[in-house]
Amino acid sequence: MTDSLKQQIADRVASEASAASEDKQKAPDDKETITPEFIAECLYKNELGDAMLFARLFKGRFIFSKISNQWLNFNGQHWDEDIMCARLPGVEQVAKIYDNAAWPFNDQIKEAKQKEQASLVKELEERQKAYYARSKRLR
């Protein structure tokens, strides 16, 4: 192998390594991107939103194959059929996210009651109730 070819290979390896490093730095951790706004969006998209939240939580761990009409889970090496229903506890985690999103409304409702803002109290209570109802439905 000529020195020129060796240098080209070394340059290419270095450029690909630096590009991969930059991609890792740019890519956000999906679990960190679950914001209150995203949760609210999921709530109002109903079942599609529940699926979006589940997918965000378990990206790379579970998938549903439309072709074979079955759930698959990743065992670290390859995708296996999810015959033990390992995905089901994940639905409980989605329900807990909705419960946790409803909790801050307690303080907001309390503040609105102290300020005698009846319409705001009603709106906040309805929003909180929607989160709890979705959580209950998932269980």
Provide structural commentary:
The chain is mainly α. The chain has one domain. The chain is built from six helices and three strands; from the N terminus they run αααβββααα. It has a three-stranded antiparallel beta sheet with strand order 1-2-3, with no helix packed on it. Strand 1 and strand 2 form a beta hairpin. Helix 2 crosses helix 3, helix 4 runs antiparallel to helix 6 and helix 5 runs antiparallel to helix 6. The longest helix is centred in the first third of the chain and has 24 residues. The radius of gyration is 23 Å and the shape is elongated. The N and C termini lie far apart (64 Å). The mean pLDDT is 88.
- How is the largest sheet built, in terms of strand order? 1-2-3
The count of domains is 1
Radius of gyration from CA coordinates: 23 Å
Number of E strands: 3
Outline: elongated
Structural class: mainly alpha
Question: What's the gist of this structure?
Answer:
With 139 residues, the chain is mainly alpha-helical. 65% of the residues lie in helices and 9% in strands. The protein has six helices and three strands.
Q: What are the main properties of this structure?
A:
139 residues, elongated, mainly alpha
Write the layout of secondary structure elements.
Blueprint (H helix, E strand, L loop, with lengths): L2 H24 L9 H9 L1 H12 L4 E4 L4 E5 L4 E3 L6 H15 L2 H10 L3 H21 L1
Antiparallel strand pairs: 1-2, 2-3
